[in-house]
Amino acid sequence: MRAPSPALLSRPSASVDATDILTATALAVAVLAPLAPSLLAAQPHDGQRLAQLAVLLGTGVSVAVVPAIRASLLRAWAALPPVLRVAFGGVVGLGVASSATAALPGYALVEVGVLVLSATLSLIVADRVSQGPQEALRLLSRAVVVMVGFYALLFAVSQVASIAAGTRLWPHAYTGFSNIRHLNQLQTWTYGLLLLPALTAESRGWRRASLGLSAFWIALAIGSGGRGTLLALAASLVVAWLLFGPAVRRHLWTVVGVAVAGIGLYLLLVWLPAVLFEQEAYRLARPMGEARLLVWGLALERFAASPWLGVGPMQLAADAAFLADGRVAHPHNAVVQVLAEWGGGAALLVVTAVGWGLWRWGLAARRERQDRALGSFVLTLALLGAALHAMVSGVVVMPVSQLWGGLVVGAALGWYLSARRAPSAAAPGAGRAWIASALVLAAGAAVVLGAGPDAMRVDERDLANVRDTTVLTLMPRFWRAGSLLGVAPDPIPEAEAHAATASPGR
C-alpha cells in the first residue's frame, strides 16, 4: 500500500508537523487580512501591516528554532533553478549595498528584510505544496472562498450602515482598506484560485459559493474602478487560452458567464443603491495614464541620478520633492520602483528572474497533463495577472498584496516543482542550516530594529505629517502615513530645503 502524501494538511491520516502548522497559520492570517484592522483595533493599512509582519517574523523565528521547518526551506531552495537562486542572492546583496548609501538606511533594510522573509515563506509553502499539489491547491482555493465570503459580509454591513446613517455608500464607505486599490491588488492575486472550486468536481456547496463569490469579486472590481485588475485579468485569460487551448476551453466559457453575472451584481449592489439614494457612482480622480506617467518620470529622474544602487529601498517615501510633485509614496510600477530605489543591477536581475520564470512556466503549461491543466490554469491567472497589474499599481508594496503574493508564488513554485522532482527526505548539512538560520534572523532583526520603534507611534506620525501640506502623506507605503520624513532622527537637508520653498497648495 502506498504511503499517504505528507501534503499541506491534506488528509486526516497524514501526520501534521510544525511546517503544516506554520503554513496553516500564515494562510489563516491571510484569510483574515481584510478584517485585521477591526480585530486589532487599528487603522486599516497599519493593522494589515502588523498582521503581515507577525506572519513573516514568526516564519523567521520558526526557521531558526524548528529543524523541520528549516529543512523544508532548504529543500525548496535546493530545488530552485540556478537562475532564480543567483538572481535572488544578487538582488538581496545589491539591496543591502544600496541600503548602506540610503538617507534612511534603517527603513531601507526593512524592505530588504521583508523581501527575504517573504521569500522564506514562499519556499516553505512551495515545499509543502510540492509533496501534495492537488490537495494543497484545493485547500488554498477553499481558503480564498472563505476570505471572499468574509469580505462579502463586510461589504453588506458597510452598505447597510451607510444607508442607515445617510452617508456615502461603498466604495466611499468603510472598505477594510486605506485605499481601494489595495483591494484590487488582492483581487488580482486571488481571482483564479477563487474560481477553482467552480471549475472542478467539488461538492455542490463549494461550487455554488465559488461561482457566486467570483461574480461578486468582479462586481467589486467594476464598482471600485479597478481597471488594472480587470485589464490584467482579461490579458491573463487570453494568454491562458493560448497556452492551454482545448484543455480549458469549457472553463473559459464559465469564466465569461461569471463575468457577465458580475456586471449584473455590480448594477444591483453598487450602481442601483447609488441611484436610489442620489449618490454618484465611483469615479477616478485623475486619468490613470496622466498620473502614472508623471510619477514614473519623477522616479526615473532618481534612477538617472543614482543608476548603480538607486536612492535606496523605500527611499522614494523619504524624498520630499518626489512626494510633493508626485503626490504618492511609490511610483506604481514595480520595474520603475526597483530601478529608482534598488538600482539598475537589481532591476536587471528582477526582470530576468520574472521573465525567465514566466517563460519556463509557460513551456511547462503547454506540456501539462490533463489532470494538472486546471491547476496550472488558475495559477497562471494569478501569476501573469499580478505581473501585469504590478506595472500600474503597488502590487509589490502593500501588506495584504505582499502576504498573498508570498503564498500564491509559493503555491505556484511548489506546483511546478511537484512535476519535476521527487520530495527529498535528506537532512540538510549543519553548515547550510546555520547559514539559513543566520540569514532569516538577520532579516527579522532588520525589520524589528528598523520599523519596530515607529510601529508604536504611527498615529502620532500621521497627525504630524498631515500638518505638513507640502506632501501628501495619506498615500500609504510601509505605514499608512506614506511619507517617512517624520521618521528621520534629524531632518534630511534636501527634504528640509524643499519643504521650506514648496507651495503649500501644490
Assembly annotation: single chain
* SS content category: mainly alpha
Low-confidence stretches: 1-14, 463-473, 488-506
| Cα-atom radius of gyration | 22 Å
Approximate strand percentage: under 5%
Give the N-to-C terminal Cα separation.
72 Å
Order of helices and strands: HHHHHHHHHHHHHHHHHHHH
Q: Given the structure, what is the number of helices?
A: 20
Number of β-strand runs? 0
Q: Share of helix among residues? A: over 70%
What is the strand and helix layout of this fold?
Layout: H1 18-32, H2 36-40, H3 44-65, H4 67-79, H5 82-100, H6 105-130, H7 133-165, H8 180-199, H9 204-223, H10 227-244, H11 249-276, H12 288-305, H13 320-326, H14 334-342, H15 344-366, H16 370-389, H17 399-418, H18 430-455, H19 458-466, H20 493-501
Report on this structure.
The chain is an all-alpha fold and 506 residues long. It is built from 20 helices and no strands. The protein has helices spanning 18-32, 36-40, 44-65, 67-79, 82-100, 105-130, 133-165, 180-199, 204-223, 227-244, 249-276, 288-305, 320-326, 334-342, 344-366, 370-389, 399-418, 430-455, 458-466, 493-501. It is globular and about 60 Å long.
Provide tags for this entry:
506 residues, mainly alpha, 20 helices, disordered N terminus
Task: Produce a short descriptive summary.
This protein has 506 residues and is mostly helical. The chain is 71% helix and 0% strand. Residues 1-14, 463-473 and 488-506 have low confidence and may be disordered.
